[in-house]
Design goal:
By secondary structure, this protein is α+β, with helices and mostly antiparallel strands. The protein has a three-stranded antiparallel β-sheet with strand order 1-3-2. It is globular, with a radius of gyration of 13 Å. The longest helix is centred in the last third of the chain and has 14 residues.
Length: about 90
Amino acid sequence: MARALDVIGEKWSLLILRDLFRNGPLRFQQLEAGLPGVAPNTLSARLKSLEAQGVVATRLYEEHPPRYEYYLTDKGKALGPVLKALYKWGEAYS
């Protein structure tokens, strides 16, 4: 469990994953708009961490200047049941 929490155990990481599950590939600005209160440097750091862990990947959508969108990898998609269980628990007990 500790290894899994090292990857996704931070609030913003879970919310990023939630939004990518709900809305598919998203650009940085779209993620930022959907996460009120997140500082841009925090969002950037969480995205880099999730990418380094192989949970999220990027693809270029504009070359000049280079701009990317973020999407879930197969490893990230495998977290779907975990996120659904957390959602159900939150609905039932909070």
